[in-house]
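Case study 2.
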Amino acid sequence: MRYLVFSSLVVTSALSGCSLYYESQAKDMVQRQMDAMVFVEGGEFMMGNPGGWDGSKDSWPPHRVVLDNFYLQKFEVTQGDFELFMNVTGYKHSNDSYKTIRSDHPERFESNLPAVASWTDASEFCKWLGSQTDKKIRLPTEAQWEYAARSGGKMLRYATANGHAEEGVTMAARASQYREQIRTLPKPPGSYPANLIGLYDMSGNAAEWVRDYYRPDYYENSPIDNPEGPGSPIIESWSDEPFRILRGGDYKDFLGNTTVTRRKGIERATNESTGFRCSLSKI
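Prediction:
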């Protein structure tokens, strides 16, 4: 595997006016985020459920996709780094439920756990990271996410080294949907072994935001080269928000919902099971 290492960073005026302590911490954090970028060699694969990998209709049909090279962070962004971003920039969380969740479940906001973020928050963090490094950094596309989770498009049902899911061994998700759900937490990023290209926790930890709008029938007419999702969103009537996509399932889910092909369309609301990682690419 290859990592993207920057000897110097372009730190913009976004840091001006903040305390020297936060400025120093932010520079270190940006460097750490960039050092964790894993090179993903592009290629061709059949995206989607090949049959029996999940029970959803929107991951069908399998379709040919060709991707350019890109980079993807090997870890989910942590709550500590997300809060440092907010402190440095003055960014305010985009969803009112953030405060409620934090008040009701403070244990979920430990600094070493995956960041609790809406789609907008995750997107803004990645774009800010790009502004600090003069690189095109965004959330990964859905196609990039699946290709990377499958260790370069391999026929692996889960984002693990051997393609298998084992509770407490390869991921945090519970083994059976019929077992009573015990309140728990995601694991700190990197708690379980990486997949074959060095990416951690892409199945069954925090459900990860991707860049695309969600449409259940998108796979029926997806372009082959570097697809970026449908051009227009479905709007949630009660919130007037566009539906986006979560991938990889989460720690409260059962293993069957954490496959590399499972898609979850959701408006950009915040909940305690979400997380994200950033990508770097030309698209």
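The chain has one domain: 13-280.
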